[in-house]
């Protein structure tokens, strides 16, 4: 027994030393690229594929520092959204929108007073926002959001369209998505990122699709703002038709590559592929072509025990809301065949867990766990 314990102790010491060196090499960047596909069989029956570029650094997504600070320090402002989504709120047709989302003034009584109070909060910012984005948006309406069904379905906090949120809506002439995305990304995204291909290149190509739309959001946080540029494509009424699932087919590419912006170091958690499947009935994932990464449970989240490996993390793998994330590990690109799987009621084959994996779970790096928790849980905004 003492001999066995001695061997385990030696393995643990070696593992901890290795993990310490490994965690020192791993980088965590403020810039993140995410490819997401949502299969919504519960509400819209649509499939939505999107690319999101986000950062909390105004050097990586460039907005004036003074504007960012003013928005963040104004406790009434919850988000600024620039979009060409059709009908950004009820009553808007065939126009692009700038929405300044504010919280309801508790002292305001009645709908007119509530709307007037919201306009007073938003008015000081619209001229500067127009200047930043080279737009000429004019006041259209003030919309009081009365429900948060969408936020409940997708587990967002409601800063965009939650109950009690008020959108002061400014509208402007509509633009084709490809023209608007090219213009906005040229303003916001530095050349070093635009020239680095990666998910940005996929988004640029997707912007030519018929049902593509773009949205840019500024979401003030405590000490900085979350800046998100999103390009999405809707596939109406296709959710029920999918049994063999290929995320990259919906993103119109055979291969997805990480941005060369990350080439200077090891940033395994800054490029993520995510799938979400919503269904009124229990579904299960099976026939997974790629690898499944060994995980352990931290704060009710599955966290990979080795972030140098590429593969899927499904959490959960079955039920009415299935979520999967694919991380690249040390790979720089992934082909579409490695991302395919089936959706249905077929029982999946569970990967075996070896004793070696159990040892790795015991000695996993604390730094890697913390990083994975931060990036894989994501911003619930």
Q: Could you provide a short overview of the structure?
A:
By secondary structure, this protein is an alpha+beta fold.
Describe this structure in words.
This protein is an alpha+beta fold and 381 residues long. It folds into two domains: 28-46 and 236-381, no CATH class; 54-230, no CATH class. Helices cover 30% and strands 31% of the residues. It contains ten helices and 17 strands. It has helices at residues 2-25, 65-73, 110-133, 149-154, 177-188, 191-194, 198-206, 247-250, 355-363, 366-377, and strands at 32-40, 47-55, 77-83, 96-103, 138-144, 165-172, 212-220, 225-235, 244-245, 255-257, 271-286, 295-298, 301-304, 311-314, 318-327, 333-335, 341-344. The strands form three sheets. Strands 1, 2, 3, 4, 5, 6, 7, 8, 9, 11, 14, 15 and 17 form a 13-stranded mixed sheet that branches. A hairpin with a 2-residue loop joins β12 and β13 (301-304). α1 (2-25) crosses α9. It is globular. The model is unreliable at 1-24, 149-157 and 352-376 (pLDDT under 50).
Notable characteristics:
381 residues; alpha+beta; 13-stranded mixed sheet; two-stranded antiparallel ribbon; 10 helices; 17 strands; globular
Measured by DSSP, the beta-strand proportion falls in: 25-35%
Rg estimate, integer Å: 22 Å
* Whole-number total of structural domains: 2
The profile of the biggest β sheet is: 13 strands, mixed
H/E element string? HEEHEEHEHEHHHEEEHEEEEEEEEHH
The averaged pLDDT comes out at 83
Uncertain parts: 1-24, 149-157, 352-376
- Coarse morphology: globular
Number of helical runs? 10
Structural class by sheet pairing and helices: alpha+beta
Estimate the helix proportion, in percent.
25-40%
End-to-end Cα distance, whole Å, is 51 Å
The number of E-state strands comes to: 17
């Amino acid at each position: 027994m003492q001999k066995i314990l001695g061997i385990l102790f030696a393995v643990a010491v070696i593992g901890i030393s290795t993990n310490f060196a490994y965690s020192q090499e791993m980088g965590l960047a403020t810039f993140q690229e995410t490819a997401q596909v949502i299969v919504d069989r519960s509400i819209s029956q649509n499939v939505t594929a999107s690319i999101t570029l986000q950062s909390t650094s105004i050097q990586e997504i460039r907005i004036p520092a003074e504007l960012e600070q003013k928005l963040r320090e104004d406790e009434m402002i919850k988000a600024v959204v620039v979009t060409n989504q059709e009908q950004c709120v009820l009553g808007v047709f065939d126009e692009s929108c700038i929405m300044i989302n504010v919280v309801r003034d508790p002292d305001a009584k009645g709908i007119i007073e509530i709307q007037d109070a919201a306009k007073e909060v938003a008015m000081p910012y619209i001229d500067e926002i127009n200047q930043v984005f080279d737009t000429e948006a004019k006041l259209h309406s003030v919309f009081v959001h009365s429900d948060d069904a969408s936020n409940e379905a997708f587990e967002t906090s409601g800063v965009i369209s939650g109950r009690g949120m008020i959108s002061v809506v400014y509208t402007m002439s509509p633009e084709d998505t490809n023209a608007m995305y090219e213009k906005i990304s040229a303003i916001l995204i530095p050349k070093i990122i635009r020239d680095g291909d990666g998910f940005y290149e996929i988004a640029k190509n997707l912007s030519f699709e018929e049902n593509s739309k773009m949205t840019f959001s500024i979401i003030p946080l405590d000490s900085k703002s979350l800046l998100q540029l999103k390009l999405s494509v809707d596939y109406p009424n296709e959710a029920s038709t999918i049994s063999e699932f290929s995320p990259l087919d919906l993103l119109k590419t055979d291969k997805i590559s990480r941005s060369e912006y990350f080439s200077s170091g090891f940033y395994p958690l800054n490029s993520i592929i995510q799938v979400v499947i919503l269904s009124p009935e229990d579904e299960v994932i099976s026939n997974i072509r790629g690898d499944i990464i060994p995980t352990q449970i931290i704060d009710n989240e599955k966290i990979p025990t080795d972030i140098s490996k590429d593969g899927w993390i499904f959490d959960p793998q079955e039920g009415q809301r299935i979520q999967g994330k694919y991380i690249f590990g040390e790979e720089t690109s992934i082909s579409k065949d490695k991302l395919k799987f089936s959706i249905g009621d077929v029982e999946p084959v569970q990967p075996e867990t070896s004793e070696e994996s159990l040892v790795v779970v015991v000695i996993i790096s604390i730094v890697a766990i913390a990083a994975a928790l931060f990036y894989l849980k994501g911003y619930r905004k």
